[in-house]
Specification:
This protein is an alpha/beta fold. The protein has 13 helices and 10 strands. A hairpin with a 7-residue loop joins strand 8 and strand 9.
Length: about 290
């Protein structure tokens, strides 16, 4: 194959091929002779449907269709909005969405866990996540240990049904209680095989925690993450993904260490829900890490 070079390219080529590497000026190295940077991108992006709960309350089927049209391929439920599990599954199938995860209330662990697991199987969930611990259940470090034991029991029953149990944090788990960080107590008092964590990247940062430090200390525990961004003001407000200060590149680059399998966009109170989830999706679709 014959190629043409200008004068500058010719001397760069000559220097790169003739001079030993030890004495070759770096300014003369050709870009295509250098190792290509290794980058990765998310292969699928999910949405926590709490973000569009107002629209879900009006029309579940139409809302799921709009979510799929934006490009999301996975969703995480926070209630079925008066739909039976079979109807939820049918609505998902109709628009090509999967729902690997759902949030379920803490109270369901003691009052309706068997039915909750059965419903999850119909919809196709592989994870059931408790997103909140009632205040009366988290009194002192021992309270968190008791919750951890309850999570282990729920996780054991879930595993028998082919479902993984999980817990989603807010910010109250990070200020020390009796000299211990409650989130650490939960991690230490739960069986990694039975209880996975869904790390909310906004709330841990809001509380002053470091996701990367937790990935190092508890590798493989974080099967799911909520992808939420935080502004740079003193109030640390919630913003669309990509318009804040959270370093998602650094976090996602450690996904293998963390054990992350699913990424769910969320914004608790967006001014315009569909504009918000579209902006977040477009940012994540382009993001390389």
């Amino acid at each position: 194959m014959v190629t043409t070079m200008n004068r500058r390219e010719y001397f760069q080529f000559l220097a790169a091929t003739v001079l030993p590497a030890a004495v070759r000026p770096r300014s003369l190295e050709l870009p295509w002779l250098l190792p290509a940077p290794s980058t990765d991108k998310l292969d699928r992006i999910g949405l926590q449907l709490y973000t569009v709960r107002g629209e879900m309350g009006k029309d579940v089927e139409r809302t799921l269709a709009r979510v799929a049209e934006i490009g999301y391929r996975e969703v995480e439920f926070a209630g079925y909005f008066n739909r039976e599990p079979k109807a939820v599954r049918a609505a998902l199938d109709a628009v090509g969405l999967a729902a690997p995860s759902a949030h379920v209330p803490f109270e369901s662990l003691e009052k309706a866990w068997r039915k909750t697991l059965d419903d999850a199987g119909v919809v196709g969930h592989r994870y059931l996540v408790v997103p909140w611990i009632p205040e009366e259940q988290r009194q002192g470090a021992d309270g968190y240990r008791r919750v951890g034991e309850m999570f282990n029991r729920a996780g054991e029953e879930a595993k028998k049904a082919g479902i993984q149990f999980g817990y989603h944090n807010h910010d109250f788990e990070f200020p020390p209680v009796e000299g211990r960080v409650p989130y650490d107590v939960l991690l230490e008092s739960t069986d990694p095989a039975l209880v996975h964590m869904e790390l909310d990247l906004y709330w841990i940062r809001f509380a002053g925690g470091d996701p990367l430090a937790y990935f190092t200390r508890y590798p493989g525990r974080f099967a799911l993450v909520h992808v939420k961004d935080m502004d740079g003001t003193a109030k640390h407000g919630m913003v669309d993904v990509g318009s804040g200060v959270i370093d998602f590149k650094a976090i996602f680059a450690r996904r293998a260490q963390a054990g992350i399998r699913h990424f769910f966009v969320e914004h608790d109170n967006p001014a315009s829900p569909f504009d918000s989830i579209r902006a977040s999706f477009e940012h994540l679709k382009r993001l390389e890490f």
